[in-house]
Amino acid sequence: MKYCGKVVVTLKPGVFDPQGMTIRNALHALSYREVEEVETGKYFRVTLEARTREEAERRVREMCDQLLANPVIEQYTFEVQEIR
């Protein structure tokens, strides 16, 4: 079966986000003064073959742990859906 893994990687709480600060300042310059904070991250969509949903979830978790997220400064969430 084919599955689609959707992964969102963000910085852990307390890790400085210079890109987020730059975006927040640019939004303020564009008169969006109500913006208090911007957090940046990464989004990945991975299509894979697996026998079961559990196997697909395990494989996506392994991908995140080994490559897609830096465990020192980043955290991730993901969901896996069957592709019909």
TrEMBL record:
It comes from Candidatus Caldatribacterium saccharofermentans. Belongs to the PurS family. GO terms for cellular component: cytoplasm. GO terms for biological process: 'de novo' IMP biosynthetic process. Signal peptide: none annotated. InterPro entries: PurS, PurS-like_sf. It catalyses: N(2)-formyl-N(1)-(5-phospho-beta-D-ribosyl)glycinamide + L-glutamine + ATP + H2O = 2-formamido-N(1)-(5-O-phospho-beta-D-ribosyl)acetamidine + L-glutamate + ADP + phosphate + H(+). Its main location: cytoplasm. It is found in: Cytoplasm. PANTHER family: PHOSPHORIBOSYLFORMYLGLYCINAMIDINE SYNTHASE SUBUNIT PURS. Keywords: ATP-binding, Cytoplasm, Ligase, Nucleotide-binding, Purine biosynthesis. The keyword Membrane does not apply. The keyword DNA damage does not apply. This is Phosphoribosylformylglycinamidine synthase subunit PurS. HAMAP family: PurS. GO terms for molecular function: ATP binding; phosphoribosylformylglycinamidine synthase activity. Its EC number is 6.3.5.3. Pathway: Purine metabolism; IMP biosynthesis via de novo pathway; 5-amino-1-(5-phospho-D-ribosyl)imidazole from N(2)-formyl-N(1)-(5-phospho-D-ribosyl)glycinamide: step 1/2.
